[in-house]
Design brief:
single chain; about 230 residues; mainly alpha; 4 strands; elongated
C-alpha cells in the first residue's frame, strides 16, 4: 500500500507524483474521521510525500500505550527482526511471515499493541531501513533484551533456509554493539539453524529490489490486519 492508493479520495489531487500540502491535510482529516491510524503518521502537510511512498493503515483504537516498558522492549525486537529481513535487500515470503509471527508471540502486549507493531513491521519491510541507526539504538539494551534481539535476528536469518553474507554482517554488527565475540557470529548462527533442524543452502548474491511476489505478500498480510472498512 502506498500514498498513491488514496488519491481518488482527495478532492485537491490534480495529478503528479507528489502529494501536496492540501492533499495531506485531506488525507489526515479522512483518517481522523474514520478512526484510522497510519505508519508513517500523516501530519497536515509538514512532510512531502511521493505517491509511491509506502504507508500502512490500520484501525485506531486510541488505546495503544507506547510508553510501557514491555512495548518499548517489543518495539526494539520488531525493528531488529525487520532490519534482519531487509539486510540483503531481498525480503522473502518466509522472512516476512516469520517477522509477523515473532511479533504475535511477544509477551505482555495487548492486542492493540501487537496490531501496531505488525503494522510497523510491514512498513519497515517495505521501506528503506538504516541498520546502523538501529544498532546504535540497541547498544545500551539490557542483557535480557540483547539476548532476545540476537535470538530473533537469528530466527529471521534462517527463515528462508538461506544464509546470506549480509545477514551474517548484521548479526556481527549486533555482536559488536553488545560486546560479544564477533568471530563466533557465523558459527553461532549455523549452530542455531542446526538446533532448529534447518539445513541452510549456499549463499546467494543480494539483489537491489523486492520481488513482486513479496510486495503482493505485504498487501495480503496487510489485508488481514485491517478490519472490514469500505473506502468508497
Amino acid at each position: 500500500m502506498c500514498f498513491g492508493d488514496f488519491v481518488e479520495l482527495l478532492p485537491s489531487y490534480e495529478g503528479g507524483v507528489r502529494l501536496c500540502k492540501e492533499g495531506q491535510e485531506e488525507l489526515a482529516a479522512f483518517f481522523e474521521t474514520h478512526l484510522l491510524a497510519s505508519i508513517p503518521q500523516v501530519h497536515r502537510g509538514t512532510v512531502v510525500r511521493t505517491l509511491s511512498s509506502p504507508i500502512v493503515v490500520f484501525q485506531d483504537s486510541g488505546l495503544i500505550d507506547k510508553s510501557s516498558e514491555s512495548f518499548r522492549y517489543a518495539s526494539m525486537v520488531t525493528k531488529a527482526a525487520a532490519v534482519m529481513a531487509k539486510s540483503d535487500s531481498v525480503v522473502s515470503e518466509e522472512e516476512s511471515s516469520r517477522v509477523l509471527e515473532r511479533v504475535e508471540g511477544l509477551p505482555y502486549l495487548t492486542a492493540d499493541q501487537k496490531l501496531y507493531l505488525k503494522a510497523l513491521s510491514l512498513y519497515l519491510l517495505s521501506s528503506e531501513t538504516r541498520r546502523d541507526l538501529l544498532v546504535k539504538k540497541v547498544s545500551d539494551a539490557s542483557p535480557a533484551l540483547r539476548n532476545t534481539i540476537v535470538e530473533v535476528a537469528m530466527d529471521i536469518a534462517i527463515a528462508d533456509g538461506v544464509l546470506e553474507e549480509a545477514e551474517v554482517g548484521f548479526l556481527q554488527d549486533l555482536y559488536r554493539a553488545f560486546d560479544m565475540d564477533v568471530r563466533s557470529a557465523r558459527k553461532d548462527l549455523e549452530k542455531y539453524a542446526r538446533e532448529h533442524y534447518i539445513v541452510l543452502e549456499k549463499r546467494r548474491e543480494a539483489t537491489a529490489n523486492l520481488s513482486e511476489n513479496t510486495i503482493d505478500e505485504f498487501d495480503d498480510v496487510l489485508g488481514d490486519l485491517l478490519t472490514e472498512f469500505d473506502f468508497e
